[in-house]
Amino acid sequence: MRAMTAVAMAVLLSVLDYTVVNIAMPDIARDVHVTASAAIWVVNAYQLASLIALLPVASLGEKFGHARMCRIGLVTFVGASLLCAASQTLPELAAARAIQGLGGACILGVNAALIRYIYPAKILGRGIALNGLVIALGVALGPSVAAAVLSFASWKWLFLINLPLGAVAMYFAVSALPKTPRTPVKFDALSAVLLALGLGGIVTGGDNFAQGGSAGVGIALLAIGLICMAVLVRLQLSQPHPLLPVDLLARAGFSIAFTTGFLAFVASNFFIISMPFNLTNVLHRGPVETGLVITAWPVAIVVTAPFVGRLADRYPAAFLTSIGMLITGIGFLLLRLLPAHPTDIDIAWRIAVAGCGFSMIQPPNNKAMLTTAPKHRLAGASGMISVSRLLGQTIGGMLVALTLGFAQPAPTKTCLTFAFLAAILGAMLSFSRVLAKKSD
């Protein structure tokens, strides 16, 4: 139990930080004098750094131990939180958030692998669901913590709360995390560089278009990113322990689960990032009211998560994931169709519907990714679980910036439309696994 507490505290730290920053985005944009679409880089810098580092960290976890990487992540994350609090401009804050993202990658790149070693196979679904519950608690606490802090202090204090949390998490990480088997493989530095250039080029190129930058620069960045990713995939095909786990992606069940998870987080990010702007700028709610209304999302996840964990150990992952994606999509559609002057209750119950659906996606889908991977590739599978989440959040954030900049006169409603479409596409993809099993 102490081992799971260590994992839970580390995960809570990274998730809570992500959530409070989302709620504070309008305040940060005003304070550093940038537009809403430019302020998205406060989120994207963290996510891009995490995304680039996740698979290298997973590989290093196999070589040096998952617990060690988790501890390194905690130290890096807390140190970067101080830098965030000291930042005065958007570039300074984005750079500090990128360092924070590297720390978060060290935590999230190994947490699922640690859970696989903490829990026996027959109750693995409960362990994954408990991890999901911790994530939901972080998301649930985030809006309330952000609203409380912003009601009497600057957004900088949102980063300083990581210091006491980090101290507690480090205590458990040092004393309780289990030792896991190590694989004596050489770290593939060339592949790590290609991965960084590939993902960095694609994301920054897309953001260049979102910000209305030079078309030539955007195309060049995208081209560099795509070329690097193509070279990386070609190199990985001949590797016995590939940094980019093409061996796992070649498994149909794994690749479908990965893509479904990606779409789930694209959909949720369309909602999570755009909704504070919708509540603040369109529906004229204050920061405290905005935080409290959005709390309906994680509260619904927290209430539903314990039941989902048991269901994940009893029913097919594809079926539960499909139902969850469908309910999430319906919730986003209901938000898109809000009346012109909704009450807080009108908004909150629709958000809760989407939250209930979202809670049904990750435990069964993540279990499917872990159980379809051989045990010696658990770190790679764990890394890919986090990659699906962060890639979805990063691409989702980039698309939100693009939508906020160009989809006038109602960009936030357009974001909810895209959230609905991404969720329905994910439901259809996941259900294809159910149909495939029936045909067999």
UniProtKB/TrEMBL annotation:
Record SUPFAM superfamilies: MFS general substrate transporter (SSF103473)
Annotated localization: Membrane
Superkingdom of source: Bacteria
One GO CC term on file: membrane
Molecular function per GO: transmembrane transporter activity
Family matches, as PROSITE patterns: MFS
Membrane topology: Multi-pass membrane protein
Protein name as catalogued: MFS transporter
